[in-house]
Amino acid sequence: MENGGGDKTLKKIGEAFQDIANAVNSETVDIEVAPFSHACSLVSPLFRCLGIAFKFAEMDYVAKVADLEKASSSFSTLGALLDRDIEGNCVRQSGSHSRNLLRVKRGLDMVKVLFEQMMASNEESLKNSASTAYAKVLAPHHGWAIRKAVAAGMYALPTKRQLLKKLNEDEASAKIQMQNYVNASTPVILFINNLFLSKELGIDW
Predict the structure, then answer these.
(1) Is residue 170 helix, strand or coil?
(2) Residue 77: beta bridge partners?
(3) What is d(CA 76, CA 121) in angstroms, rounded to the nearest whole number?
(4) Which of 192, 144, 142, 145 is nearest to 37 (CA)?
(5) Helix (H, G, I), strand (E, B) or coil at 194
(6) Which residues, 6+ apart, have CB-to-CB distance to 75 below 8 Å?
(7) What are the b/e assignments for 29-63, b being 16+ CB within 10 Å?
(8) Among residues 93, 87, 29, which one has the least CA distance to residue 67?
């Protein structure tokens, strides 16, 4: 299997988030909605590859990324998007751009923790890595029924080898690309957290 394909999912994800991280690290005042939503859309196939355990997360994530992509025609930056919801007193309303952004950010964070766990583990099974990522990032915000469904679905996760095959990666190339995403997404996730906190919106809702 070739390892240098420019169209591979993990490579595209890492490169897209690196571009955003470069902007954040250059002390930009904000993140542009269009490139951010595009980078987030590249993560969607990864959720799909994880199968039924993350079916709800995939559907939720895809819908909210689509909302942000649509919003990019009206708002240039994430800060402007939040400000409009603040003005409209609808930040926490179901379907608001702010609420959707917070949930997309959690999806990115879950993938980051999943990759960290996978790189630290020699296990062929993804159950422990995926369970840890879900428990740390998404479970606190899900009701009992969803948590139970995810737990049941963990037994149907692909193996590490099966996942990498779906992503057209071998273990060596995947580790490089996963680390690239972890490195690039960390400042982006932190920036979004700080954006919400700076506007006194909180991030645990």
Answers:
(1) coil
(2) 32
(3) 40
(4) 192
(5) helix
(6) 33, 81, 84, 97
(7) ebbbbbebbbbbbbbbbbbebbbebbebbbebbbe
(8) 93
Q: What is the DSSP string of 13-55?
A: HHHHHHHHHHHHHTT-S--BHHHHHHHHHTTHHHHHHTGGGGH
Q: How many helices (H) and strands (E) does the chain have?
A: 10, 0
Owner of token pair 């606190």:
140
Mean pLDDT over residues 152-159, rounded? Answer: 93
Q: What is the pLDDT of residues 136-154, one digit of tens each?
A: 999 999 999 999 999 999 9
**Which tokens hold the place of 179?**
């680390």
Helix (H, G, I), strand (E, B) or coil at 77: strand
Mark residue 139 as left, alpha or beta (left: phi above 0; alpha: psi -120 to 50; beta: remaining): alpha
